């Protein structure tokens, strides 16, 4: 069965996603006065976002209605897998017949779509960078990409898995480092192991997060100024250990 949500009431904000199309670079910059004063418009219609029942697929469908006009469009997008389903997107109306939809990608950057009625016709399009006030509201006040309470970052992860013909423990753990601006992890599955390091801001903290629904996949994340970014994906697929850098 497909999961369908209309405009979502913002959930309790724990940690925010950052980076990606339309998001600001850097940690704790303040938006302009216009951004700070922005308040969503009262919609004259509705927007529905439909995600596949199979979280491994990449299709997202948007249905938009306003001013007696309708539009439907489907996009291909690798969706974030390590957040609760209800936190995959936020819809923010800037006008009664205009709404921006921010969707969380697998690398925790944000893809934006814009649905509006223009010259009497309803349209849905992907946009590269929405207005500053929109992404500020979507990613800060509306809390796009919150992490649920059972997904707090930890220093290690261990879970027995069966992948292909192999039954083994997936082990991922942070290793000691000599400087605060670096992080190193060790990953192991079925006799294969890898150690990978990366540079992070000295003021950032790092950790490992996973989703209970996907025990074969974990992420090394960077957390700074109440925002987090996926750095490395570690997963087991067809009996093989795979590590992907996400930046």
Number of strands: 17
Report the β-strand fraction as a percent range. over 45%
- Put simply, the count of helices is 2
Can you summarize the main beta sheet? 5 strands, mixed
Structural class: mainly beta
H/E series, N to C?
EEHEEEEEEEHEEEEEEEE
Whole-number radius of gyration?
19 Å
Uncertain segments of ≥5 residues (pLDDT<50)?
Answer: 1-31
End-to-end distance, in Å? 34 Å
Helix content: under 10%
Tertiary shape = elongated
Please tell me the overall pLDDT. Answer: 81
Structural topology:
Elements: E1 3-5, E2 16-17, H1 33-37, E3 46-51, E4 59-66, E5 69-76, E6 89-95, E7 98-104, E8 110-118, E9 121-127, H2 132-141, E10 156-163, E11 166-175, E12 182-189, E13 192-199, E14 205-211, E15 214-224, E16 227-237, E17 240-245
Parallel strand pairs: 2-16
Antiparallel strand pairs: 1-3, 3-4, 4-5, 6-7, 7-8, 8-9, 10-11, 11-12, 12-13, 14-15, 15-16, 16-17
Structural description of this entry:
- The structure is a single chain.
- The chain is mainly β.
- It is 6% helix and 51% strand.
- It has two helices and 17 strands.
- It has helices spanning 33-37, 132-141, and strands at 3-5, 16-17, 46-51, 59-66, 69-76, 89-95, 98-104, 110-118, 121-127, 156-163, 166-175, 182-189, 192-199, 205-211, 214-224, 227-237, 240-245.
- The strands form four sheets. Strands 2, 14, 15, 16 and 17 form a five-stranded mixed sheet that branches. Strands 1-3-4-5 form a four-stranded antiparallel sheet, with no helix packed on it.
- A hairpin with a 2-residue loop joins strand 4 (59-66) and strand 5 (69-76).
- The model is unreliable at 1-31 (pLDDT under 50).
